[in-house]
Amino acid sequence: MRFAETRRVWSGVVSGLAACCVVPVAAQTADAAAAEASPYSLTTHVGLFSEYVFRGISYTQEKPAVQGGADFAHTSGLYLGIWGTNISSKAIQNAVGEIDVYGGYATSVGDFGLDVGLLQFIFPGGRYEGSREDYNTLEAYAAVSWKVFKLKYSHSVTDYFGFNDKSFGTAGNGDSKGSHYIEANAAVPFGDGWAVDLHVGRQTVRHYEDFNFTDYRIGIAKDLGQGWRASLAYIDTNADSTLYTIDGVDTGDSKFLASIVRSF
């Protein structure tokens, strides 16, 4: 959100003569123009979600989540951001939350857009029992868009969420670097602030193919004005329930996700 200085200049008439402005008009105009011309912008947001769902998988054991983040961008297209959420320590063992830090470059030409960058997933305290391997993961991503459609590819530079021989022991198949996720998205507006949200994605875990899955989402969102946005989506995956069931909860099962978000 670009912050621009607001100003008020007033004058009066004293003894039949125009009084001078309390603040010089020229100085105020110059300050406002400089603020408007700032090449930097900052946007922040916070939201309440019925649960935290990442690529179709619940990471709060179907419990509510509070999420928020901030993005700092330059008119050149460069940007940095940070985002956080609560998670379940059952889904990510011993974790107290998730913090994502990312940066990249985005540009557009007409209806076409390009976005490339790096995303670091950080799970403070998150470590596998026994091996003590952490879940932290670094991904590189690239996305292209045209009008309301977007295609994005994410590639794991490190082990994917700690999948390796140390974490899996005798069941391990090596490292999982090179795991990837490809997704197609569409946000189709249909008037009065309403939009339909469509998504399909495919997660591939290198050397651990049993954990591969496809996720789907169909939702509806409403722009409520003044930075508020509400949404409701139906989400499902074909993830193997025997692998993705944690403490009796099938984290990849079908679910409804409701949210209310405020942007500043």
Record the SSE blueprint.
Layout: E1 13-14, E2 17-18, H1 25-36, E3 40-49, E4 53-54, E5 57-58, E6 65-74, E7 78-85, E8 98-109, E9 112-122, E10 137-146, E11 149-156, H2 165-168, E12 180-191, E13 194-204, E14 213-225, E15 228-237, H3 241-244, E16 245-246, E17 249-250, E18 255-263
Antiparallel strand pairs: 1-2, 3-6, 3-18, 4-5, 6-7, 7-8, 8-9, 9-10, 10-11, 11-12, 12-13, 13-14, 14-15, 15-18, 16-17
Structural notes for this entry:
- There is one protein chain.
- The protein has about 260 residues and is mainly beta.
- It contains three helices and 18 strands.
- The protein has helices spanning about 25-35, 165-170, 240-245, and strands spanning about 15, 15-20, 40-50, 55, 55-60, 65-75, 80-85, 100-110, 110-120, 135-145, 150-155, 180-190, 195-205, 215-225, 230-235, 245, 250, 255-264.
- The strands form four sheets. It has a twelve-stranded antiparallel β-barrel. Strands 1-2 form a two-stranded antiparallel ribbon. It has a two-stranded antiparallel ribbon with strand order 4-5.
- Residues about 1-25 have low confidence and may be disordered.
